[in-house]
Structures are given as C-alpha cells and as structure tokens.
Design a protein that fits this description.
Layout (H helix, E strand, L loop, with lengths): L7 E5 L4 H12 L3 E5 L3 H8 L6 E4 L6 H15 L4 E4 L14 H30 L2 E6 L12 H21 L4 E8 L5 H4 L11 H13 L4 E4 L1 H11 L3 H9 L30
Parallel strand pairs: 1-2, 1-4, 2-3, 4-5, 5-6, 6-7
Helix pairs in contact: 1-7, 3-4, 4-5
Amino acid sequence: MPVVSFRNVVLSGACGGLGQALARQLIAAGAQVALVGLDSARLHALAALSPARCAVYTPDVADSVAVQSMAHDWLARFGTPDLVIANAGVAGGYDTAVAGDLAVFRRMLEINLLGAATLFQPFVAAMGEQRRGALVGVASIAGWRGMPGNGAYCASKAGLIRYLESLRAELRGSGVTVHTVSPGYIRTALTAGNRFAMPALLEPEDAARRLLAAVARGREQIVLPRRIGWLSRALGLLPAAWHDRLLLGQPRKPRVGEAGATAIPGLAPSSNRTPPPT
C-alpha cells in the first residue's frame, strides 16, 4: 500500500474520527507516529498499538511555544518526519449578530488556520535540509465558497487553502511538497449534529485511506471524494443569488450551545450567545 512509504509522521487532530483512522492506518503500516491532540486517553489508546513507535503530545495547536516543545522532543527522539499532517480542526455555526459568537470565530481561526502554520513551522527547515517530505493541510470544500450560518468555518478553511497555496509556492523545488485536502462530508463528531443533507458521506477509514494514497502519489489538490468536488463546482456555476437562495433553504449548522453542536476546545463560556430578538 502507498501508506508504507511514510515512515516518520506527525499528526495533529489524532483524537477525532479522521485523525484516529489516519493514525491506525499509519501505525499498522509500520510508521513512527507523533499523536497530537487534546484527549490524552484516546491518544494513549492509539499509542498502545505500538508503544515503541508512538509518542503522545497534548499541546494547544495554536500555542507556538507548546508546539515547538513537542516538535523538539519528537525530532530528538525519532528524527525528521517525512509527513506532517495538520488535521486538527473544529466546526460550528456562526451568527454575526451575536456578540458572543465573535469568540467562536476567533477560536476557530486559531485552531483551523493558525494551528496548521504553527504545526508546520518547527519541521520545515529540517525537512528542507533532507530535501524530502510532505506537508498536508486538511481544509474543506466549505473553504471554496461561503455558506449561510457557517461563516467562521468557511473563512478558516478558505484561509487555510490560500495559506497552503502560498507555502506550496515557497517550497517548490525544495523537495518538500505541500498538499491541500478538501473533504466533503465524513462521518465524524464534527458532522454528527448536522441537520442538512450530506451527499457522498465517507466513513473515516475510507477517507484516511484515500488521503494517504493521494499524498503518496504526489497529488497536490485532494478532494474527498472527488464527486463532491464536481458537485460543488457545478453549484458554483449558478448565479450567486440562485446559489444563496438554494443554501438559505437548508438547515444551518448548530451553533455553540445549541443541540447537536460540537465542543470547541479552549472556548471560554459566554452568556451572550443568544440571538437578538427579531
């Protein structure tokens, strides 16, 4: 399998559905894996699959000091990675009219966008010195176009896509490749509360297998599955007003505090996340 070509891997977001599937497949293939996440129990359960080849780290991915400490420890113990996957991410609805939701926006940007740059930074120079390796950012097709009620998430993923484009250009010819992954819908905790249709829903194991195989083949733009990308592009051909009207008719993603919403780590409790009266 193509995954065997990766021998030394740093993986953030290893606690979630896609992250756990990636970790299990990499460990099964014999890779050394740095398991980065916030749920220590889940990470240690993964590490138990191969204690000698895994290490558990629990930094906030937006905390550069904590992430650099993790990176220095991994580099000292296992050497330079040939694959770094920035998979940590959070999702949730957003309402600009609600003052408390600004904290949601800020935290989502910290994890989804800043977290990727913070994870890559300590490894780029070392990977450049060995003139090989892959940096993978898990974005989303939600970053291709804004969606009503999902502005924070769409903005964070759109920003990640543009950041990865910039990094790819900077590293072109260095031997270090940059890969943008744009999944559609994957059956994970982040999508469990969605109240709208999720076409081409993938299981995490299938998504992980496709992702690793595509990176191993050198694909720079990876859409999971491809047909969801075709659907999104087709909808994008509609006039903007038609597209917006179509999306406005769909249920919105739950906001923090609403039924079905997923928790956002590091988000302080707020009492002003109630929409204003209409």
